[in-house]
Write a structure and sequence with these properties.
- The protein has about 475 residues and is α/β, with parallel strands linked by helices.
- The protein is about 45% helix and about 15% strand.
- It folds into three domains: about 240 residues, Spore Coat Polysaccharide Biosynthesis Protein SpsA, Chain A (Alpha-Beta Complex); about 100 residues, no CATH class; about 80 residues, Tetratricopeptide repeat domain (Serine Threonine Protein Phosphatase 5, Tetratricopeptide repeat, Alpha Horseshoe), CATH 1.25.40.
- The protein is globular, with a radius of gyration of 23 Å.
């Protein structure tokens, strides 16, 4: 029976979308059709030129046409928030306009298949809806506040129960879909938490090899057999979700912009990242034969530094040497090199410092140990120590403050603000927290929010010159 998939992306995800398309073609054993909503005209033109025979292109305006609720929501959303808002509407429109499509599987554009999706379809079986869990590793469990389930892969049947879920989700996203955590909502994702309890016929995907991602991969063992097949805890690796991967150049890729908070190992990089990076590179070159100036998706404002682990094509090895950075170079293949830092873990089940972390210690001692590890550059160990404090003492403001600083320094600004707001809630007049939170809010352009915070502090400590100077920036 023919299978149907859908995805959407713009020029900034074009090379990733092409990698998804080609990996699905490689591993899908059944006849299939992939609907792609082109979020800009450049994407549609390039894909028309490439002419994948199993792809049906749909311009965005066909989804938006006469949809007053969606277009009203568009006016209140950032571009990313609007894309998230689109997700249920896209699935709904494809099912409504194509009666022959009895089941539709939605895929995020930054997924990549390594094996047949047959086990996913088999699990769906008679259910009307399928979702999958993040399956957070213990050290990243705190991220579950943004949603137990991930939107990266979803299945909906065109039956009464599937349509009931989909229409409810669309209505929720049209009403509220923002890039912030607010009253039990976060983007389009946190609504999925209600699917299994609010509706019948919802299946939660169980296969370990489906849904591997940066937030869970460190808890698994990866291997490649003599036939080149990828395995994760002795299950076939079906797909990986490349959230947080950044490309500086077609030849230089950062596996995770949140490293080392997102931990990595060589076996993860070899099994998952190297094949994907190679496909992205080749897609760039392919697009540039059509449009030589193409640079979609490249990150312009990030520089290589001693903490960034990255993968680079051997053709630019000489250029990288000019940076004089203390990397350990690990060959991955004939074409690709890993520029490693000391934070690269040696195996997926990290044993180092296990007893050190499990011994009971007072929070002040753990806090000092975490600061010491930060000074030595051992960011992962520092995070583990701080999280241990927070697990034992959830209201510990200084541990929350230090977690915020680490997240801010690696670019995870939303998580940093979240931790600082928690710290401020428990210590509303702690100067260090006020100073850090106020400064971050000002940096993000949220000056009214910063002014309110600083004014409240100054009402109790009106002579604090440092906070007054920060207030003057607002």
């Amino acid at each position: 029976m023919k299978r149907y998939y859908c995805t959407y992306f713009d020029r900034n995800y074009l090379v990733k979308g092409m990698a998804l398309i080609e990996s699905l073609k490689t591993h899908e054993n059944e006849p299939f059709e992939l609907f792609i909503i082109c979020l800009d005209e450049f994407t549609r033109i390039i894909l028309e030129e490439i002419d994948y025979s199993y792809v049906r292109l749909i311009p965005l305006h066909e989804i938006e046409y006469h949809d007053t609720e969606l277009l009203k929501a568009k006016k209140t959303r950032s571009l990313l928030e609007y894309y998230w808002t689109l997700t249920p509407t896209i699935i709904l429109r494809i099912l409504a306009r194509n009666p022959s499509v009895r089941t539709l599987m939605y895929l995020d554009a930054d997924l990549f298949f390594y094996a047949s999706p047959d086990p996913i379809w088999q699990e769906l079986d008679q259910h009307s809806v399928m979702i999958h869990e993040h399956r957070f590793s213990p050290e990243q469990k705190y991220l579950e506040r943004n949603g137990k389930y991930n939107v990266g892969l979803l299945c909906f049947k065109n039956d009464s129960q599937g349509m009931k879920v989909l229409n409810w989700w669309r209505s929720c996203c049209n009403e509220w879909c923002f890039y912030r955590l607010e009253e039990g909502k976060f983007g389009d994702q946190l609504y999925l938490n209600q699917f299994p309890t609010r509706f019948q016929g919802v299946k939660i995907l169980e296969h370990i090899g489906a849904g591997v991602a940066p937030w869970n991969h460190i808890q698994y063992q990866f291997s490649i057999d003599e036939h080149g097949k990828k395995w994760v805890d002795n299950y076939p690796l079906i797909f990986y979700h490349f959230h947080s991967l950044e490309m500086l150049l077609p030849e230089v890729v950062i596996p995770s912009k949140y490293f080392p908070i997102t931990p990595l190992t060589k076996d993860i990089i070899c099994a998952c990242f190297e094949p994907y990076v190679d496909k992205l590179y080749k897609n760039y070159k392919r697009i540039q034969t059509i449009y030589p100036d193409f640079s979609g998706g490249l990150v312009k404002n990030r520089m290589l530094n001693r903490t960034l682990l990255f993968i680079a094509h051997q053709s630019i090895q000489a250029n990288i040497k000019h940076f004089n950075l203390p990397y350990t170079i690990i060959p991955l293949t004939q074409d690709w090199l890993l520029y490693s830092t000391p934070d690269l873990r040696s195996n997926t089940r990290h044993k180092k410092n296990q007893s050190y972390l499990s011994n009971p210690s007072p929070p002040e001692k753990l806090l000092d140990q975490a600061k010491n590890e930060q000074r030595k550059g051992n960011i992962v160990i520092a995070i583990q120590l701080l999280l241990k404090i927070v697990n034992q003492y959830p209201n510990h403001p200084l541990a929350l403050n230090d977690l915020a600083i680490i997240h801010w320094n690696v670019g995870d600004k939303n998580q940093a603000i979240h931790y600082l707001k928690m710290a401020h809630h428990h210590a509303p007049f702690e100067k260090k927290i006020i100073n850090n939170l106020g400064g971050m809010l000002i940096h993000l352009g949220r000056k009214d929010e910063a002014a309110c915070l600083l004014n409240k502090y100054l009402s109790q400590s009106p002579d604090d010159i440092e906070i007054q100077n920060l207030m003057n920036i607002c």
